[in-house]
Amino acid sequence: MDHTVDLLHVGFITHDVKQFITTRPDDLDYEPGQGVELALDLDGWRDEGRPFTPTSLADEDVLEFTIKAYPEHDGVTERLHELEPGAVLHMSDSFGSITWQGPGTFIAAGAGITPFLAILREKARTGEIEESVLHFSNSTPADIICERELEDLLEQRCRFTCTEESGTGYDDRRIDDAYLEEEIDDPSGNFYICGPPDFVEATRATLLDMGADDDRVVIEG
Predict the structure, then answer these.
(1) How far is residue 211's CA from residue 74's CA, in Å, rounded to a whole number?
(2) Looking at the structure, do residues 128 and 214 belong to the same domain, yes or no?
(3) Residues 124 and 207 in one domain
(4) Are 50 and 37 in contact (CB under 8 A)?
(5) Which of 25, 102, 179, 199 is 20 to 30 Å from 157 by CA-CA measure?
(6) Do residue 64 and residue 121 come from a single domain?
(7) Region for residue 11 given its phi and psi (left: phi exceeds 0; alpha: psi -120 to 50; beta: otherwise)
(8) d(CA 211, CA 113)
């Protein structure tokens, strides 16, 4: 790992997602949407780096990470959620291909929203968010990360779908072929996709079948 950082703050965002604030290395640069690897400074975990996306703005003095725990994996995210301020983390330099390519349609599932948070926050600040739309799928309303903030940023251009438990104001359906064909009027623009690998590949394939330009479909990889 290239850097060592200190954990400054930990707090819940949803029932299984926490905000982590760390110090920022002086020589770390990243574009909103790019990630870094984090590893715990604990015996048996220092070589277990995992990718996470800073959700803070790129010019802030500290780093924010928005991280969901997966207790069933008994892995890095579960150990991260056990940490308290004062803990030490090891961090790589930035990497990743999810970066701003212009206004477009953002399509996320679950924790896949995290690369988009910094992008949308940055473009709201610069006044470049008005032509972008977000479609965000979760299991239940309680799982939606930064729901109110996303509504404030995107207003009526923010659509939430719930696949297991829904409620007033949420589409009770999956983001699948039928959904995309109904919601995407013009496939010629930019598309940003992030979520579980099967979701990303299926969504990308549908968009391409609809006439989207592969060069304008932004995914990690």
Answers:
(1) 41
(2) yes
(3) yes
(4) yes
(5) 199
(6) no
(7) beta
(8) 24
| Inside any domain, residue 97 | no
Q: Which domain holds residue 135?
A: 104-218
User: Which strands sit side by side in the sheet containing 3-14, from one edge to the other?
Assistant: 50-52, 36-40, 88-91, 3-14, 17-23, 62-68
Residue 125 sits in a domain of what CATH number?
3.40.50.80
pTM of the model: 0.95
For 164-207, the pLDDT digits (tens) are 988 888 999 999 999 999 999 999 999 999 999 999 999 999 99
Hey, is 152 helix, strand or coil? helix
- Domain end, chosen from 55, 70, 91, is at 91
Among all chains, which residue has been given the structure tokens 């984090």?
38
56 close to 87: Cβ distance less than 8 angstroms: no
Structural domain includes residue 99: no
pLDDT in tens, 89-143: 999 999 999 999 999 999 999 999 999 999 999 999 999 999 999 999 999 999 9
